[in-house]
TrEMBL record:
Residues 15-48 form the Putative zinc-finger domain. This is Mycothiol system anti-sigma-R factor. It comes from the Bacteria. It holds the Pfam family zf-HC2. NCBIfam families: antisig_RsrA.
Length: 95
């Protein structure tokens, strides 16, 4: 049984915000309080639960199909150089 405080907290959670935060929960990138609030909302909101299920399946599929693959060393090196170059340009524009 939920308390009045829990019910008002459920009503405050915007479904679009919950769905946006689902990825954080799937990636274990949110704190326990946020995870608890999201799970409680998902338990009580059928449309969010359905969207969560879809996103969980998409994430799982991506992990299975792309997991463990790494970019070639040459590509990683070129990207690293380009990122450093871009940062240096941005810093010189600020100075």
């Amino acid at each position: 049984m939920t308390s009045d405080a829990e019910n008002s907290e459920f009503e405050k959670l915007d479904c679009s915000a919950v769905i946006a935060d689902v990825w954080l929960m799937l990636d274990n990138e949110c704190d326990e309080g946020t995870k608890h609030r999201l799970k409680r909302h998902l338990d009580e909101c059928g449309s969010c639960l359905a969207a969560y299920g879809i996103e969980e399946k998409v994430k799982s599929l991506i992990g299975r199909k792309c997991g463990g693959e790494q970019a070639p060393a040459g590509l990683r090196e070129r990207l690293s150089i380009e990122i450093r170059r871009t940062v240096l340009i941005k810093q010189s524009e600020i100075d």
